[in-house]
Write a structure and sequence with these properties.
Mean pLDDT: 82
Order of helices and strands: HEEEEEEEEEHEHEEEEEEEEE
Helix content: 10-25%
Structural class: mainly beta
Shape: globular
Radius of gyration: 17 Å
Low-confidence stretches: 3-38
Length: 245
């Protein structure tokens, strides 16, 4: 809850017209621009060949990892999609510890694995070794939740620009091969509230925080940052952006 709770509080604050936005350009430094100078990106910027989402997007990363063009539960790159507690595979109306599937009042959160994706190729078919990976359960085949290291690679090897697509705020990652993917600022769900839409995006990784059983790592995006090392309580409802082999 530590860093995520801070992010949610910040996301609820009103941005002034003089707020600074930072764009990570190709030579790996940040440039500032006034908030009202942010341009809207055209959907033609995306690498998707058509509107039949999801698509596998090659971002030219060293590991060969491919990224989905949209979130689990989304119909387009700018759609927020579904909100899931970590390790759960269905949305719900209320998000807290009492409704979290892997929690009990006497022992706290249950350990369901350090990495809940654990997708392996068995007889030529990619299969999840457990039922905690919502990307694989919902989309099947080669899709799975990204690890913390996958997010780190995306942030380190791609440029990041805060922009709008069809009126939706979010972060546009551009690979060195020119391909792009858009992460909408989908916020987060806690109890029956939805926080931070339009100001922050919080995306689950498959990795539990080894130092604190209550947390798992997330990718956090905002108007001035893309942070692959953030973390949040497993009972929050966050979005998921799948990757593929």
């Amino acid at each position: 809850m530590r860093k995520l709770f801070f992010i949610l509080l910040v996301s609820m604050m009103t941005l002034s017209s003089s707020a600074q936005l930072l764009t990570w350009v190709e030579d790996n430094h940040y440039e500032s621009a006034a908030a009202n100078d942010v341009n809207e990106s055209s959907s033609s910027t995306f690498t998707c060949p058509d509107n039949k989402h999801p698509h596998i997007i090659d971002m030219g990363l060293p590991s060969g990892t491919k990224w989905a063009c949209c979130n689990v539960g989304a119909n387009a790159p700018e759609d927020c999609g579904g909100y899931y507690a970590w390790g759960e595979i269905e949305e719900k109306d209320y998000y807290n510890w009492e409704t979290y599937k892997y929690y009990n009042n006497s022992d706290g959160p249950t350990r369901i694995g350090r990495d809940i994706s654990s997708v392996k190729k068995i007889s030529g078919v990619y299969e999840a070794s457990n039922h905690y990976d919502v990307a694989h359960v919902k989309w099947g085949e080669k899709w799975y939740m990204p690890s913390k290291e996958k997010y780190k690679e995306l942030v380190n090897y791609c440029s990041f620009t805060w922009t709008k697509v069809n009126g939706v705020n979010g972060g546009l990652f551009k690979g060195r091969n020119g391909n792009t993917i858009f992460f909408p600022a989908a916020g987060a769900r806690w109890e029956n509230y939805l926080f931070g839409v339009g100001t922050s995006g919080l995306y689950w990784s498959s990795i539990q925080d080894p130092a604190f059983i209550y947390d798992a790592f997330v990718l956090s995006i905002s108007d001035n940052n893309a942070d692959w090392s953030a973390y949040g309580n497993r009972n929050y409802g966050l979005t998921v952006r799948p990757v593929s082999k």
